[in-house]
Amino acid sequence: ELKVEQNPLFLSMQEGKNYTIYCNYSTTSDRLYWYRQDPGKSLESLFVLLSNGAVKQEGRLMASLDTKARLSTLHITAAVHDLSATYFCAVDSGGSNYKLTFGKGTLLTVNP
Amino acid sequence: NAGVTQTPKFQVLKTGQSMTLQCAQDMNHEYMSWYRQDPGMGLRLIHYSVGAGITDQGEVPNGYNVSRSTTEDFPLRLLSAAPSQTSVYFCASSWGLAGSETQYFGPGTRLLVL
Questions:
Q1: Lowest mean pLDDT among A53-57, A69-73, B20-24, B94-98
Q2: pLDDT tens, residue by residue, A14-68
Q3: Quick one: closest CA in B to A96, which residue?
Q4: From the CA of B82, how many Å to the nearest CA of chain A?
Q5: SS3 sequence, B78-97?
């Protein structure tokens, strides 16, 4: 059974600071996804990572995937208040079907 | 394109009642899925479909039925609602079956079972 672990689960940071959210998973997979969810809203896709060493960046967020370590990171650079949200990673269990297992999410609060 | 739509937005049920959560997409996506989101639990896959007429179980299928008669629609049926089914339900769809595409999520249905 695929298990996906995110840490930290809660992150409070100051504007302008850098931080990293970690996503570990238990079985081999080379497909990993990051989503953002604002309170009371749906999920918005941030990144799709499909191979070992994949790195994608959008604004102040950068995601990477190390399939050998079964680890993905979401790095936040110079945080701003608008980044406050819950961030989820999700891992595809593989095969021809598309079955995602989600982490529990990281609630990020960026304080002025 | 409306994307992925879900109805209703909110629903209150009594234990034992049945209901259907509707999900539709207008992007001609083959893959559709249903998740439930509970506090502190992330999202858990209930059922999914890889095309019209084809469905399969996810991680937490008990108490739920699905069918997929058209590409556009993927309803989720609660046969006999229980308080443990109180949750937020999200429907999602995507192009590909090989996991290379992102999933688009609907706005969600908040369900309270008393």
A1: B94-98
A2: 999 999 999 999 988 778 999 999 999 999 999 999 888 889 999 999 999 999 9
A3: B98
A4: 23
A5: ECCCCHHHCEEEEEEEECCC
